[in-house]
Amino acid sequence: MDPNTWCVLWILGSILMTAAQNVPMLCIGRVICGLCVGIASSVVPIFRFDISSMSGVLGTMAYKEYFGYPVSYRQGAITASMPAGSLVGSLFSSFRVVAHV
Q: Is pLDDT of 54 > 80?
């Protein structure tokens, strides 16, 4: 699909969620937006790295050697942040229980 089509679908999903009259309408809008967010989060880092010009900084051979590192580091950071976020969330939820908030 054309990238503009995904943008239009994302906007339509957002409008559908905003104008939701009932739960199924909200769920359909969330599914549409979730699909578009998933595609954007997988395509944008690769596109951003493809259009960057590292050949002038490191040379052509270094560009080919380090081609996948920015995308891999981003994915690794996302994966590492999940347990960290879960730990912080569990600490604050136990604080709320103790403090009766």
A: no
